[in-house]
Amino acid sequence: MRSPLPRAVLTRLETGRVVVLSVLLGGLVGGLCILLRLALDELLRLGAQITGYAPPGTPGEGGLLMAFGTALPWGLLALPLVGAAYAWLLPAKSGDPLTQLVRGYHARGQWPGLAIQVRTLAGTLLGYGAGLLVGRDSAFTMVGQLGTRLLGRVTRLDSVEIRTLTLAGAAAALGAVLHAPLAAAVLIAEVLYRRFEFEFEVLMPCVLASVAAYAVYGLAFGFQPLFSIADVQAPSAAQFLEVMGIILAVTLLGWLSLFAFRAIPEQWSDGQLRPVLGAVFGLLTAAVAWAGTAELGNFGTVGTPAVLGDGTGWVQLGASGFLGSEALGGGLWRWLLLALGARIAFGGGVLPSVGIGGVLGAGLGSVLGVDSAVAALVGMVAFVTVTLNVPVAAALLAVAWGGDAILPVALLTAGLAHALSGESGLVPGQARSRAASAVHAGATVPLLPEGVRFIPRRMAGAPATPFDAPKPDDAPDAENMPSPTPAERELYRRGVPPSWRGARLSILSLPPGVEVVGIVRDGTVRLPRPELLLTTDDELVFLARPDAYAALEGVLRLPGA
Asked: What is the Cα–Cα distance from 101 to 468, expressed in whole angstroms?
């Protein structure tokens, strides 16, 4: 039914709906993250019993600032099995949770099905619990996406709302685990593109959901930052060259990891070889960890058990001044594992890059005489910027964890690292720019709810488009189709809205510029006779201007419409 309210009022109501849904989603995801943290803590205890080694944790997530135990050779033999299972559970076409999020958004909300998402969550839990290079944030990112699915089961969401709220759910979960809700919201809006561009339309829903989730999560576990770094001061002008040395060195290592990622053929990580490569990666991790506990003749200990886990606990130790130049060795081993394992989804997400960059920065700071906290934060910002293409979010994370005094050097680090590293990254689904994203292709066509089809005007001389033809997005020449202007009328096909079921066509009130030209029933198109009663299985065919049809959909999205 046509609403008597002015369009400006309808726009405010639609915006208010997104606001309410974002806050509700944030609260829901915050509750799910509480359960997830309890499960992760139990998995870490079980993993430590198997491998004999428990890496340090972060204060914000209840971790202890010391490592426990010695890596057991027989326990480490479980890592190849876990690596194979992880690679099998995360399909190559989907990737890690952050890659799934980015790819699905640019595919206009075509995320993997529920079964694949559950498999991905199981794989990240298994890999993180065993101590492989899997970030704690990966499981949270997937839980945020599943939270949006759960919300969609209890309320009606159109395709635009699903895309927006899926990003908001991921931002909510990241805000909880990173203890930095604003930085997490910016990260989600920024990580979609390789260039310095943002999806500003989703930023506020991400902020609202992230803040709400952190509020719920903090009620259970407290509101302290992820890292406990006190009294961080900006480096003096006399140390400018040393700080620049850390920035350039970590940026170079980050760029080399991207080069190694691109050098490994993609087909190697597909098909039946993928679990085998996962097992090889687990074996390599076990070998490095075991080599840190055994004397190898004149070489001493070559490896280090510090490669187990996502490395954030070692960043805390490095920033607190408990690590010396030996942190460089642990950071380089982690860097090597990332370079070799990124193709099979190891090291994806945020915290593995934080762990590598922070430990490398702390080690370089010890060598160059730079404050350990500043060096760790600078290294973290540089490495995260290079691997994820999120310079603003990386700087905001440094501020959330180290205080406002680190902001100038964080911005300098992020800007320089992004300028030097180019547009490559470890998130395969990133679009080059907004113009290259399918979400923004043909921006003059209104964004339609799920199940609504747009049939574009055919080009002169081109064969006619069958009414039941595949979606334009599936056609090879869809991107060459001209977008309709607001003055042209186009065909739209959608299911009967719930409030219209059982009504006669004659009583429908439509916006100006919209008319019903056909009814699809039992596979045939019928003329729209005024006395025809609409049923649940019917589909309506509208002839409308794009702006007029967008107004109709806006009315139908209102509660009770």
From this structure: 30
Considering the entire predicted model, what is its pTM?
0.79
The burial class, CB within 10 Å (0-12 / 13-18 / 19+), for 487 is: exposed
Q: Tokens 């890999």 — which residue?
A: 127
Element (H, E) at 517: strand 514-521
Strands (DSSP E) contained in 320-456 are: 453-455
Name the token pair of 98: 């952050």
Contact 423, 194 (CB under 8 A): yes
Strand, coil or helix: 304: coil
85 within 8 A of 128, measured Cβ to Cβ: no
Helix axes 240-263, 327-341, angle to 10 degrees: 30
* Pairing outcome for strands 68-69 and 53-54: antiparallel
CA–CA gap between residue 428 and residue 372 (Å, rounded): 33
Kind and range of the H or E run holding 418:
helix 407-421
Q: 48-57 b/e with 16+ CB inside 10 Å = b?
A: bebbbbbbbb
Beta bridge partners of 541: 493, 518
Give the integer Cα–Cα distance in Å for 141 and 359: 23
Element (H, E) at 490: strand 490-495
Token pair listed for 7: 């369009």
Tell me how far apart the alpha carbons of residues 450 and 448 are, in angstroms, rounded to a whole number: 7
Structure-token pair, residue 446: 């209104």
Q: pLDDT tens, position by position, for the chain (561 residues)?
A: 344 445 444 444 456 788 999 999 999 999 999 999 999 999 999 999 999 999 999 999 998 888 888 888 889 999 999 999 999 999 888 899 999 999 999 988 888 999 999 999 999 999 999 999 999 999 999 999 999 999 999 988 877 889 999 999 999 999 999 999 999 999 999 999 999 999 998 999 999 999 999 999 999 999 999 999 887 888 888 999 999 999 999 999 999 999 998 888 877 777 788 999 999 999 999 999 998 765 544 444 456 888 999 999 999 999 999 988 889 999 999 999 999 999 999 998 999 999 999 999 999 999 999 999 999 999 999 999 999 999 999 999 999 999 999 999 999 999 999 999 988 899 988 999 998 888 886 444 444 444 444 454 444 344 434 444 444 444 434 334 444 444 567 888 888 888 888 888 888 888 888 899 989 887 678 888 888 889 888 888 888 888 888 888 888 876 655
- What is the C-alpha separation between 55 and 35, in angstroms, rounded? 22
Residues 213 and 303 sit within 8 Å (Cβ to Cβ): no
Burial 519-550 (b: 16+ CB within 10 A, else e): bbeeeeeeebeeebebeeebbbbbebbbebbb
